[in-house]
Amino acid sequence: LSRTHPGMLTRLFELEVPEVAEGVVEIRAAAREPGERAKIAVLSRDPNVDPVGACVGYRGSRVQAVVRELQGERIDIMPWRERPADFIKSALQPAEVGTVYANEETHTLTVVVADEQLSLAIGKRGQNARLAAKLVGWKVDIKSRAELERERAAAAAYAAAEAAVPLTALAGVGEKMAERLAEAGFGTLTALRKATLEQLTAVKGIGEKSAEKILQAAREYQVVLPQEPEPAAEAAPAAGEAPAATAAPVAEIAEEAGGTDEPEAPPQEVLAEAAPVEVAPAGEGEGEAGERPGG
Fold first, then answer.
1. What percent of the chain has pLDDT over 90?
2. What angle do CA 280, 281, 286 make, to 5 degrees?
3. What CA–CA distance (Å, rounded) separates 16 from 230?
4. Alpha-carbon gap, residue 38 to 145, rounded angstroms
5. In 3-state terms, what secondary structure has residue 160?
6. Averaged confidence pLDDT in the chain
7. Predicted confidence (pLDDT) per residue in 77-107, tens digit
8. How many C-beta atoms lie closer than 10 Å to residue 133's C-beta?
9. What is the DSSP string of 221-255?
10. In the predicted model, is pLDDT for residue 258 greater than 60?
11. Beta carbons of 167 and 178 less than 8 angstroms apart
């Protein structure tokens, strides 16, 4: 067995953790980037045994032995979950996950996190996201809340623009044809794009060739989104007109008024920077993600 294979990690835990060797605790999934980081998901067959605590050991003794054998490779240990949407929340530790949308058809999990959690969820060079995707076995798409809101706003704007397109804008569709399509339930470009050839040929006056041309025209039509108006530029002064006077500097105003004190500086707003979140390597303390004393 190669030392870079995920199975190597499982074998090492079997040697260090009696509960794993005896089958009380099962390693259900493992993902590695050898020499850098690994994630394992564990499940207990005994309700009285904490699977994560058993693998971590007292003060991290068991997992530290595995880390030393793998020459410092960091290991995250988390409970295994049946539902992928629940599993990915644990797999993306130490990031805090907000909402998860699962697409069963494409096998994709769209994960929404707070803006300040985005870089932590993705990880350095995308490592945390890659390992989580391998562990769960689904594609993972991570978005911030702000990014998701922008995408939804863009989709709503496109849908509104698509609904506003008259069917007569399509090649080969006149007023009477548009009326017949509307009566059949295809009165918008959106509905027409979803129609099938059989549905259109059932409309009075539309043959197979005409239906094919209408469908092609509807699907190839380029919807143009309305442009946001640009801010109006300031008008230049007319010929012979003096430019508008600008405000004199505060210091000059004070001198003209006979004052001797310097103007008081406006208060400055101080923005507190969030302290960076650091994930300590496994074996260098008790605060590592996925580890906790016990077992």
1. 47
2. 65
3. 67
4. 28
5. helix
6. 80
7. 999 999 999 999 999 988 999 999 999 999 9
8. 21
9. --PPPPPPPPPPPPPPPPTTPPPPPPPPPHHHHHH
10. no
11. yes
Q: Given phi > 0 = left and psi -120 to 50 = alpha, else beta, which region is 107?
A: left
Q: How many whole angstroms separate alpha carbon 16 and alpha carbon 233?
A: 72
d(CA 99, CA 101): 7
Q: Tokens standing for 14?
A: 């079997």
At position 295, the amino acid (one-letter code) is G
What is the pLDDT at residue 99?
Answer: 92
Q: Provide the CA 126 distance to its chain's centre, in angstroms.
A: 12
Question: Which of 62, 60, 27, 24 is closest to 42 using CA atoms?
Answer: 27
User: Within 10 A of 142 (CB to CB), how many other CB atoms are there?
Assistant: 24
Length of the chain: 295
| CA-based nearest residue to 135, from 23, 290, 16 | 290
Mean pLDDT on 32-41:
93
Report the candidate in 28, 72, 30, 79 with the shortest Cα–Cα distance to residue 50: 79
Contact criterion met (CB below 8 Å) for 192 and 214: yes
Residue type, 11: R
Which of 130-139, 208-217, 223-232 has the least mean pLDDT? 223-232
The secondary structure of residue 138, as a DSSP letter, is: S
Residue 277 has what pLDDT? 37
CB environment 54-91: b (16+ within 10 A), e (fewer): bbbbeebebbbbbbeebeebbbbbbbbbeebbbbbbbb
Per-position DSSP letters for 34-85, written without gaps between them: TTTEEEEEEEESSTTS-HHHHHH-GGGHHHHHHHHHTTS-EEEEEE--SSHH
Burial category of 173 from C-beta neighbours within 10 Å (exposed 0-12, middle 13-18, buried 19 and up)? buried
Q: Which helix (H) or strand (E) element contains residue 122?
A: helix 118-122
